Structure formats: C-alpha cells, structure tokens
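Methods, example record. To illustrate the input and output format used throughout this study, we show the complete record for Glycosyltransferase. The sequence lines were provided to the predictor; the line carrying structure tokens was produced by it.
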Amino acid sequence: MINISLCMIVKNESGVISRCLDSVKDIVDEIIIVDTGSTDNTKAIVSRYTDKVFDFEWNDDFASARNFAFSHASIDYILWLDADDVLLEPERQKLLQLKQTLDPAVDAVSMHYHLAFDSEGNVTSSLRRNRLVKRLNGFQWHGAVHEYLAVGGNILNSDIAITHHPVEHDSDRNFRIYERRLAAGETFTPRDLFYYANECLDHKKYEQAIEYYLKFLNSKQGWVEDNIRACGKLADCYDHLGDIERERKYTLKSFEYDTPRAEFCCRLGYGFMQKTEWQKAIFWYKLATQLEKPKDSWGFFNEVCWTWLPHIQLCVCYDRLGEYKLAYEHNEIARKYRPNDEQVLHNKKYLESVINK
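The corresponding predicted structure is encoded as:
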C-alpha cells in the first residue's frame, strides 16, 4: 500500500476548506497546507487537521506556490486538491482502493474533474487532470496562471472523479494577473495566449478575445484539445457579436483538428433550427448522437451534447415535420437522462396525445 501526501494552496477559504479536508482526511497520510495570504480564519481551521501549515508570500504565480507546497511533501505520492474540491463517497472508496492496490511503478494517476451539474445531478462539464504523482520523480508545476503539472512515465488513467463545488471566487483575479504581465512586456506562451483569451471572453471583451484566440491558433503550437476549444470559443465570440458567418466558420474549423465533436454538431444543428431548416438540423443532431466520445481524452466536454440534448432537439425537429413517432422516440431517450425534466415530461404528454389521436 502506498502513502499519500495531500498538498494544497489556500487563501481565504474558510467557507469550503473543512468540506474538502473532511472528504479526504482519513485517506491521506500527510496534509501540507500553504497559505498565500488569508485574512479570514482559514489557517485556524486547517490547523485542526495538520500542523504542517506554511506561509507563502504571494507573487502572482500559482505554479510557484504549488511547487513550494510539493517541496514540503515527505512520503510516497502527492495528491493535490483545491479548497473548493471534494471527494464524494463513491469516489472516496475508489481512492482508498487505489491506495491499497496501486503498482509503485506508476508515476502519475489522472482523475476526472467534474465541474458542473444539472438539476438531476448529471455531470454537464468535465475534463481530466493529473492528480496523484510519485514524489521522488520531482514533477513540477508550470505557468503563473492556469498552471499545469508536467508529468511523464507510466501514467494510469483512473475512473476516480474529483468534484468541483465552488461557493464564490474572485472572477477578476486571473485577468488582473495577465494584464499586469502584458503591461510588463512579457511574451506569452501559446498556453498563455489561450487562457488569456478565455479571460477576455469571460469579461465580455470579445474583440480582444478573438485577437488572442487567433494568435494562439496561428502559433500552431497548441495542444489539439485546446485548438478545438479555441474554435468553440471563437464561435462564441462571433455569436455574441452577431457574426453568424464567422461563428459557423470556426465551428467547422474544429473538424480540422480531430473527428467531429458532439458540441460542434449541436451548434450547427441549432443554427439550422433557428432558420427552420429542419432536415439540416436533424442531420447534425443525429450525427451528435452517433459519435463516440474519444476514449480517455483529456479535453473539456459539455456532457449534455453527448447525452440528452441532441435527442430533445431531434424531438422538436421531427415534431415540426409531423413525424411524431420519431419525435416521441427521441424524447424517451432524453427522458432516460432527465426523468423529471418539465419540458421532457410535457413533450411526452403532448406526443402521446397526438399519436393516440
């Protein structure tokens, strides 16, 4: 059985830190907390869980803070979490099982990261992150903002999921860091270009976001999943600006980087729905239902596009064409994912009355 050191960086996390630590305290063997300048009682709370609490003078560099935390770990493997992450009970049991059975030849373990949920509790967005790494390998974090952990060797892609449950956060923090770096004349890496563009989009600076997404794509150095996401983000920007032609252009450009993704098929289908071109919409939504999600992909997925959304849209399209049985069939598939959804239940009642008539 391996031993695990939990390493975290925190600042003003009194509202969530206990929830996080309670979910993992009986699994890990060591807890390292690095505080980057809390002004609330975060340090007092974490002191109830560990005496290994360290201060780090904040320098606008997340990777630096995380590497400092890793430097204090002293046992086999390092697990990292953010304060607003939590392990739900089924995942706790999976992690305990992994701890007991992990082959010491494994250098890193990746886990799912569940970011958002619908009213039924279904995951609506997710990705994969390296979460557990062998300490002696000395893996390092890179990037002042939207940092990443560079690993290599024997990597195990587990089915364990970490759940992100934020309460509140400083939505301007990362944007301010990037702006200060630009003002200082720093040259951005392709990764920085992509994530700065994301911050611009989040702050509704659409023209600026477009500029940096294009710089990122034109660098031709981006990870394929980020290239695909950049196409989707560019489509979002042009949608906000009312430029339908360019929105479609970058939706289709995503196909240059990999086989079609359901998110982009649904976007194209919706565009044709808005123009009441039902058959064209049906083509793209049907394609979305037939796609197989890339296995063990590390990309960001909008889960609704891979599950119920194309079916509910096909229900609408077929209803408009008077093909009520097909509409009903797709509504029933959507109902498997969202059994209590009011729209789905309304469709069921309506279509049953039409078909029986």
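Annotations derived from this record:
The CA atoms of residues 61 and 317 lie 49 Å apart.
The chain has a mean pLDDT of 95.
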